[in-house]
Known about the structure:
The chain is α+β, with helices and mostly antiparallel strands. The chain is 25% helix and 33% strand. The protein folds into two domains: 10-143, no CATH class; 147-326, Rossmann fold (3-Layer(aba) Sandwich). The chain is built from nine helices and 19 strands. The radius of gyration is 20 Å and the shape is globular. It comes from Rhizorhabdus wittichii (strain DSM 6014 / CCUG 31198 / JCM 15750 / NBRC 105917 / EY 4224 / RW1) (Sphingomonas wittichii).
Amino acid sequence: MMPGNAAAVATSDGLARRWTGRFGGRSIGIEADAATATLLAALPLPEPIPVAAPDLSIRFESGAPDPRDQADPAWRVHDRWARSEQLRVRGDGGRRMIFDPFSRSVVSLGDGAGRIWFDTAQAFAPWVAAAPALQLLDWWGTPRGLLATHGAAVSFGGAAAVLLGPGGSGKSTFAVEAAERGHGFLGDDYVLVEPGFAPRVHALYRTAKLGRDRGDALRRFSRLAEGEPGDDKDVFIAAGADVVRSAPIVAMIAPVIGAGSEPRLAPIGPADLVRRAAPSILRQMPGLEAEKLALLSRAARALPCYRLDLCRDHGRNIGAVETLVAAGAGPHG
Length: 333
């Protein structure tokens, strides 16, 4: 299980735990039962905002009633589950459901309320513990102009650079190394981009995923806490890092693992940025593809976009982006 987050999971009724947050001026309240409360550790520390009527309410739960038993028999949920087949259902009024045997969960959203039921017979999958409720936040945010992206974000003196691209392109290492050097951590794998006249990025999680050498990672990064082992990457909590909730974006960057001795930043056009970033966003969070591409394109057109060829020296990579941000790169469209 992920380590507990006492500050983030205040007791509400002796069993349930609650978390509150705000993204783009909209409030979210999340409640978890005793079996799922550890998932709240991945979220940023809660905000002191009312939870009586948030814009989105989410509940993590397990046990009875089992939503698989309540599903339409024509869906053959149990048969599909046994064959490891994911089932996605769309209904009237934007209602959505996913029966997902891979994460052993059932996700549903409708009328401003979300529910994620877990089969807790097995431990939570590492990717679930690292990014709980990601699908719900994606479903809810996209129609409201909030784009859940497969990317990292770092704040340099209050202004953020967003790094977008596929897995293995260096996003996580860059974000964690930058946090270790005192820069603001907004996320290493998923962040929420709010396009507009003054685009912003919001932190979704305070987790970090790094290559599988937990001992080395914990020795190198004083701002990481023990987390979950994964199949290809281990999941850590950025416990000692100051997780920045939100920051204005001044540049969007597509990182690439390079072989040179120095990092290289080169301007690219908005279409190139979208081409590099869109496939992993749509693959990680399928659905509403046209809306997501429109939001990503809007952000890319409003901001300077760059390709960053990373070198082996993490300090030089971070310095290059820090210099870019300090030079005052900003909205240009």
